[in-house]
Each structure stands twice: as structure tokens, then as C-alpha cells.
Amino acid sequence: MNPINFSQSNLSLTVPEGEEDRVQPLHVCRTSDEEGDYVISCWKGGLIDRLRFLLTGKVWFWCWGSTHPPICLDTKSPSWGE
User: Fold this and answer.
1) Which residue range forms the structural domain that includes residue 49?
2) Is 27:4 a contact under the CB 8 Å cutoff?
3) How far is CA 39 from CA 33, 43, 55, 56, in A?
4) CA distance 82 to 80
5) Number of structural domains, the chain?
6) Per residue of the chain (82 residues), what is the pLDDT tens digit?
7) Residue 26 in contact with residue 19, Cβ under 8 Å?
């Protein structure tokens, strides 16, 4: 899976120092609505990723550190206020 840029992105999160060979910048959209604040990124899988998902229906989420905030993984684009 690779993070991709998208038209609604309004911020690029930088690579942590010392991780330049393993990590790339992450384009995100920082936004909010009546339910709270959000940071949204878009990812695209290569052929093997897509085949693996088709066969298993699973996506694995990894996060650095010992915890992470609530997240949502989805296959549909946010409404973007439409």
C-alpha cells in the first residue's frame, strides 16, 4: 500500500528524521465537521495488494508507538461537504 496525493489534500506530513529511507511524506486533508477534527489520507494498493484484499477481505493497520487515536478505514471517498 502506498499513500497517494489527492485533490483535497491541504497538508503534507514530513518524514521523521532518520527514516528518510523507509518513509515518504504523507499528503493529508486536515478538516473538521460537527462531530470533530479529522486528518484524512488516501492510499492505493498495487496489484498484489488488491488481489490479496480480494481473496481475504482483510486490511492490516500498523501504527508506530504504543497506542493510536480512533481511526476509520474505508473504501469510499469522504463526502467532502457535498
Assistant:
1) 2-56
2) yes
3) 12, 13, 29, 27
4) 6
5) 1
6) 999 999 999 999 998 899 889 888 999 999 998 988 999 999 999 999 999 999 999 999 888 888 888 888 888 888 765 4
7) no
